[in-house]
Design goal:
By secondary structure, the chain is of the alpha+beta class. The strands form 9 sheets. A 16-stranded antiparallel barrel has the order 18-19-20-21-22-23-24-25-26-27-28-32-33-34-35-37. It has a 3-stranded mixed beta sheet with strand order 2-5-4, with helices on one face. It has a 3-stranded mixed beta sheet with strand order 6-8-7, covered by helices on one side. Strand 27 and strand 28 form a beta hairpin.
């Protein structure tokens, strides 16, 4: 014990002595000399040193000066000393990088990303330490792209005035293929099942478009998260992904191995909901019912998230805005008991709503899209909906909201910052198929005079139709939530070759829409047409009866139920609409019904799948046949792979349309194929449709399911949107006419 005390005492005295002698050796600096600098001024170097005239400088201070100067990355060598009360700083400056070149990289996108990630930049100081760091960064950069065997050679060209050119000569080599994927440990599930969970996939020659077959460290890390999430949703609460590693099989291939410890499977036990006393229990009955369904079911983290989301939505919709939902979990044996608790937090009110950036758009147009008012309690759902409503106007490149503290402790200020974009559009389109071509042209302004008014003039010309339309639409009529539409339309149809008649129609329509209930809009309109029909001499006798002049006036009713999560870039929810046109004064008395339904679902990240339904009817309320021009045809967008209007019942050589049309369309976006091309979406689609009903002769019905599958490409080019579609008919009738390819292009101003 005495020896130990003596040891501590000795060390203390030694440290004290060193500090004391260091202080004693401190010198007062009366002058500072800087030597060896060419580019960097002496004053700047003195500032970096942290020493001034009349400062006391010790050995410790000299070491700190060295550290400070080296940390600037401006100097290759630095020495400091004190002589005759003068601080002498000698430096050798690092050269300046005039230019950095990357040889061996052809992709401009990869080259751009590489330059952004590099530490050393052109016109910065060269540093050997940073050069080594950059080399490692570049290696890892290419590893994340699958190039595990890349080689980097560095050369330095010395120039005048202590400048250099830095050259990276990069040989990427072949991408590292994933030849095999294995799962070891207590994995529970079969490898085949787990392979479908992760993004990485085994190399196969036919997967030439997929980048997922190459080794990618960032994707492997993401795979670990996917695996863990999969197990957490299968009841394995304590799952651990012990490791993931790649084992080299040959010169170009690896085996990717995941080590999984699933642990014990856990089931839902007792689920409880705790709410404040002043909250109504009846509002949360749907949650309680959900609890009963989950009892003894395998634990699932997604189910937990769904419950919390349900609780928050109900709470906010019932005006209990200021809440916090917490989850407490307790595991007993293989059962997990969970308590969901709603706690009231401090309410705050909206003091002010500010809008910035609207140089063209009138503020009243924007405020009409905001679902909350100044003075209201803050509501997160209505706030998010308001921002999305503004985005849906499609007047702006960027819409951002921020919430700031107000002048009072319980108030907030909402700032909405927007960046306007060009809202005028010139559109041109062309389509080609086995039975001819079509052309369309239009000029549109979506925000006329900043009032949010849409003015649209367009012309469509095909081998059998010329259609011109002028539309004025005001979605904020007199600063209300009502919209007002006025349309003038003229159509000339020559269907002599396909349907045995010509038609010329001129008319106008006036309509309005307004919100009746939350998410439910009602519409009322009137449409009035004058039409002349000329039936060809070769047409059937029943068709010839319709030769003549007609006047038709309709009242239209619309019911629109919109439950999309957002109108702009929809990822979830559905849209449903029903329209009926009732004849008021009409020479043919045709009643039409149209029902549309479209559902959206995000199946995985960056994927949106849609399913849409259409059903249309056209029936005469009198004994007359449905007018030739009012009969129904299958539009090309609903049945891709077939010429528009060239499907369905035929009277001799004439396509005469039907009384009924139905279609179902499924679309899903595919994973990114063109990784180096921005703003490109590739979609896969499947269409099925039917057209039937000939009121004057049932023998001409020609009903049957037509179907097609295909691929589409949407590319937002610098000159405007460009779309392609390729469709292959699967089922068809002998008389149907195919159209396998479509193309469109547009631009904006």
């Amino acid at each position: 014990m005495n020896i130990l005390k003596s040891f501590y005492k000795f060390n203390f005295l030694l440290i004290f002595f060193l500090i004391f002698t260091s202080i004693l050796r401190a010198e007062v600096i009366n002058k500072i000399n800087v030597e060896g600098n060419e580019r960097i001024s002496s004053k700047t170097i003195q500032m970096f040193s942290g020493v001034s005239i009349n400062d006391n400088v010790t050995e410790v201070d000299l070491n700190n000066i060295l550290k400070r100067l080296y940390n600037t990355n401006f100097f290759d060598l630095v020495s400091v000393k004190v002589f005759n009360e003068t601080l002498i700083i000698k430096v050798k400056e690092n050269p300046i990088i005039q230019n950095i070149s990357y040889e061996g990289i052809k992709s401009s996108k990869i080259l751009e990303d590489l330059k952004k990630s590099s530490i050393l930049k052109s016109r910065s100081s060269f540093n050997k330490v940073l050069l080594e760091k950059d080399k490692k960064k570049i290696k890892n950069f290419f590893k994340n792209l699958g190039y595990y065997f890349s080689k980097i050679e560095i050369s330095i060209d010395e120039l005048e005035d202590n400048k250099i050119n830095l050259n990276y000569n990069i040989s990427l080599g072949e991408k590292a293929k994933i030849k095999k994927i294995s799962f070891i440990g207590d994995k529970i599930f079969k490898d085949k099942k787990l392979k479908n969970v992760i993004l990485s996939e085994e190399y196969k020659p036919w997967k030439f478009l997929s980048g997922r077959k190459y080794l990618n460290e960032s994707m492997i890390n993401y795979d670990e998260r996917l695996l863990k999430n999969f197990y957490l949703n299968k009841g394995f609460y304590n799952v651990v992904i012990n490791s993931s590693f790649a084992k080299m099989i040959d010169d170009q291939s690896f085996e990717l191995i995941f080590n999984i410890d699933a642990n014990t499977k856990v089931f839902f036990g007792d689920l409880k909901l705790e709410i404040p006393n002043d909250f109504s229990k009846s509002h949360y009955e749907v949650v309680e019912k959900f609890f009963k369904k989950l009892e003894n079911e395998p634990y699932s983290v997604n189910r937990i998230e769904d419950i919390v989301e349900k609780i928050e939505v109900i709470t906010i919709n019932e005006q209990y805005e200021s809440i916090k939902a917490s989850v407490n979990e307790n595991i007993i044996s293989n059962k997990i008991n969970i308590s969901f608790k709603i706690e009231e937090t401090e309410k705050f009110f909206i003091e002010r709503i500010n809008i910035f950036g609207n140089n063209i758009t009138r503020e009243s147009v924007l405020r009409n899209q905001i679902e909350i008012d100044e003075g209201d309690p803050f509501n997160q759902i209505l706030y998010a909906k308001s921002l999305n409503n503004i985005k849906a106007l499609n007047f702006f490149e960027k819409v951002e909201g921020e919430i700031l503290d107000g002048s009072q402790f319980n108030t907030k200020i909402i700032n909405i910052n927007i960046t306007e974009k060009a809202t005028g559009e010139i559109f041109a389109g062309v389509g080609t198929g086995t039975d001819g071509s079509n052309f369309s042209f239009g000029i549109k302004e979506n925000n006329y005079l900043g009032r949010g008014v849409k003015v649209d003039s367009n012309l469509m010309v095909s081998e059998e139709k010329v259609k011109g339309k002028f539309l004025v639409s005001n979605p904020n009529y007199k600063n209300s939530d009502k919209n007002f539409d006025l349309a003038l339309e003229a159509t000339s149809i020559d269907r002599v070759a396909t349907s045995g008649y010509k038609s010329n129609v001129t008319g106008f329509s006036i309509g309005t829409q307004f919100e009746f209930l939350d998410d439910l809009r009602l519409g009322l309109s009137t449409k009035n047409n004058i039409e002349k029909i000329d039936v060809d001499s070769s047409a059937s006798s029943r068709q010839k009866k319709q030769d003549g002049n007609y006047f038709d006036s309709f009242i239209g009713l619309d019911f629109i139920y919109d439950k999309r999560n957002q109108k702009y870039q929809t990822t979830d929810g559905f849209f449903s609409s029903y329209n009926v046109n009732v004849p008021i004064i009409s020479d043919t008395n045709t009643l039409t019904n149209i029902y549309n339904y479209k559902i959206f679902k995000e199946l995985y990240e960056n994927n949106v799948s849609t399913l849409s339904l259409l059903f249309k009817t056209a029936n005469s309320l009198s004994s007359d046949d449905v007018k030739l021009s009012e009969r129904l045809y299958l539009p090309g967008r609903r049945l891709r792979g077939f010429e528009s209007g060239k499907v369905g019942p035929k009277d001799g050589s004439d396509f005469i349309g039907g009384n009924y049309v139905s279609s179902i369309n499924a679309t899903t976006t595919l994973p990114v194929i063109f990784q180096n091309v921005q703003n490109v979406d590739v979609v896969m689609f499947a269409d099925a449709a039917n057209i039937w009903g000939v009121d004057y002769d049932s023998s001409l019905d020609n009903s049957g399911i037509r179907s097609s599958v295909g691929l589409g490409l949407d590319w937002l080019t610098p000159v405007g949107p460009l779309t392609f579609s390729f469709a292959h008919p699967v089922t068809k009738e002998p008389t149907d006419i195919e159209e396998t390819f479509r193309f469109n292009i547009g631009t904006t101003f």
